Amino acid sequence: MNPIALLAAAGTGTASGSTTQQNPVTMIVMMAALFGVMYFVMIRPQKKKQKEEQDMRDAIQVGDEITTIGGIMGRVVTVKEDSLVIETGADRNKMKIARWAISTNNTAAEKAEAERQAAKEAAEAEKKKRMDEAVESSKAKRKKTKKKDDTFDE
C-alpha cells in the first residue's frame, strides 16, 4: 500500500480493513492531565501574581511613593478603604485614585532592594571572613609541619 493511502486510512481510523477503538478511560485521563498541566502552567502563576499585587495594595501607607497604572507618580496623603489621595509634582496637586489603580509601591520596592543589597554585602563579608580564617589556619598548619620537619632533620 502506498504512504498516502496509509495516511488516509489512519485519518479514518481504519488500516487495512481493521478498526481500532480507544479506551474512553484513557481519553478522560489524558483530558485530566492536560487540564492539570494548564492549571500549573497558566492559572496558578496568574493567581499568585494577583494575590501578591493585592497584598501590595493593602499594605499601602501614608507617605509611600506609588506609581499608578497610568504612570502617575505621587506620595500617598490619605488612605481610605477603596481609594487614596496622592500628591503629585512640586506644586503638590492632589488626586483621588482608586486602590486598584496602583501599579507599584516604589517605597516598598526601594526598601526591598536595600535589604537585598545589605544581605548580599553581609554574605560577601561572611565569605571573606571565612576565607581569611581558612588562610590563617592553613598558614598555622604549614608552620607546625615545618617545625616538625626541622626537628626530624636534626
Kindly list the characteristics that best describe this protein.
154 residues, 5-stranded antiparallel sheet, 20% strand, alpha+beta
Summarize the structure.
By secondary structure, the chain is α+β, with helices and mostly antiparallel strands. It has three helices and seven strands.
Descriptive notes:
With 154 residues, this protein is an alpha+beta fold. It has a domain at 62-154. Helices cover 60% and strands 20% of the residues. It has three helices and seven strands, in the order αββαβββββα. The strands form two sheets. A five-stranded antiparallel beta sheet has the order 6-5-4-3-7. The chain has a two-stranded antiparallel sheet with strand order 1-2. β3 and β4 form a beta hairpin. The longest helix is centred in the C-terminal third of the chain and has 48 residues, at 106-153. The mean pLDDT is 85.
From the N-terminal CA to the C-terminal CA, the straight-line distance is 95 Å
Helix/sheet category: alpha+beta
Q: Please outline the major beta sheet.
A: 5 strands, antiparallel
Low-confidence stretches: none
Number of DSSP E strands: 7
Pattern of helices and strands = HEEHEEEEEH
Helix content: 55-70%
Quaternary organisation: single chain
